[in-house]
């Protein structure tokens, strides 16, 4: 690192593919998914991991879509692991069996994050749009517990399943995992299309928060519960991605290098391609990374705010989605002139929950 270059990213999110057997209505991947034909080859991914390790990256998160749809996943995990990178698999578990798990463990996989759509099978399979998914996930969880690989469960919470958080926590406790995430949906990509069906009511949010607090008090260190609340009910923005271009770098299935998973919505900027430049050059100098890095870009009231190096201006993609301007103050902030718009969205929540809008891979209907 020189005086001109920023510290390296801590984590690389390797989005191996947008292909996925599930069709979650809260999917944060872009509305237009990357085609299979354009996916980076294993050789390019290995070069990326070489460059990431040299740059100072510590962790690689293998993600998607469903990363297990790539048959070369164990080869990629083995390569990242051989470089000393901590490897985490973010998966729905529906493609996991004993042979696949054995191959990943032999490759050096360090950790798995297994996502659930709900704890009630019928609801889970309705939300994910895949029959039989829940039993596959439960089997995958049992396999991983039997193997002993560190496992985190991830439950995505929204209006349709917020009433079952105690049952989700009870399952995590029974299974014996050390960590569970109770994470309210965020509204990016396809998830923004389904916002009216997904946003919980204030009563639901307060109930879930009380349930999580009670479980934390009861379970102590036996089960760590990460709790992510929905931005729309907050008055202070989150430091999205730990700040733009500060800690995380995403690489899309076709090789676009991004500061966050939703950055492809940012207009009037070139998206760097990992096939055209090194990861270090992109991280240090690409305009997409420098445009919102640090605090110099901030408008008022952010520029004069005492919290500007705490929240780093919140979320740029949310500012774009809600205020139409990626450089605007995040409307989640109570000091934003657009903050009242969030209140109007919440006031307008339909009493009758609209049906989910699904998409299939290859279609953006
Ligand atoms: Fe892009 Fe928050 S998702 S900055």
From TrEMBL:
Its EC number is 1.21.98.4. The keyword Iron applies. Pfam families: Radical_SAM, SPASM. It catalyses: [PQQ precursor protein] + S-adenosyl-L-methionine = E-Y cross-linked-[PQQ precursor protein] + 5'-deoxyadenosine + L-methionine + H(+). Residues 6-222 form the Radical SAM core domain. Belongs to the radical SAM superfamily. PqqE family. This is PqqA peptide cyclase. The gene is pqqE.
């Amino acid at each position: 690192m020189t005086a001109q270059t920023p510290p390296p990213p801590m984590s690389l999110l390797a989005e191996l593919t947008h292909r996925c057997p599930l069709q979650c209505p809260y999917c944060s991947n872009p509305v237009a998914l990357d085609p299979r034909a354009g996916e980076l080859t294993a050789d390019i991914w290995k070069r990326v991991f070489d460059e990431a390790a040299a740059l100072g990256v510590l962790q690689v998160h293998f993600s998607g879509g469903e990363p297990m749809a790539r048959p070369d996943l164990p080869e990629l995990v083995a390569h990242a692991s051989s470089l000393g990178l901590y490897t985490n698999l973010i998966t729905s578990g529906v493609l996991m069996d004993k042979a696949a798990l054995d191959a990943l463990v032999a490759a050096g996989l360090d950790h798995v994050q297994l996502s659930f759509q709900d704890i009630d099978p019928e609801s889970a399979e309705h939300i994910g749009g895949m029959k039989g998914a829940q039993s596959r996930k439960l089997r995958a969880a049992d396999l991983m517990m039997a193997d002993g690989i560190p496992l985190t469960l991830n439950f995505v919470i929204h209006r349709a399943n917020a009433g079952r958080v105690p049952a989700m926590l009870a399952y995590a406790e029974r299974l014996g995992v050390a960590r569970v995430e109770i994470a309210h949906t965020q509204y990016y990509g396809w998830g923004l299309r389904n916002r009216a069906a997904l946003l919980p009511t204030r009563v639901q949010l307060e109930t879930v928060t009380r349930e999580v607090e009670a479980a934390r008090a009861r379970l102590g260190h036996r089960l760590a519960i990460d709790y992510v609340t929905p931005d729309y009910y907050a008055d202070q923005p989150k430091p999205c991605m730990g700040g733009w271009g500060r800690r995380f770098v995403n690489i899309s299935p076709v090789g676009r290098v991004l500061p966050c998973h939703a950055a492809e919505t940012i207009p009037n900027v070139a998206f760097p391609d990992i096939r055209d430049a090194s990861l270090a050059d992109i991280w240090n100098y690409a305009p997409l990374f420098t445009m919102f890095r640090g605090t110099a870009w901030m408008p008022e009231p952010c520029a004069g705010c005492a919290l500007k190096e705490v929240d780093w201006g919140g979320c740029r993609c949310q500012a774009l989605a809600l205020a139409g301007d990626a450089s605007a103050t995040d409307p989640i902030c109570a000091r934003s002139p657009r903050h009242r718009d969030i209140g109007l969205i919440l006031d307008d929540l339909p009493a009758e929950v609209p049906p989910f809008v699904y998409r299939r891979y290859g279609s953006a209907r």
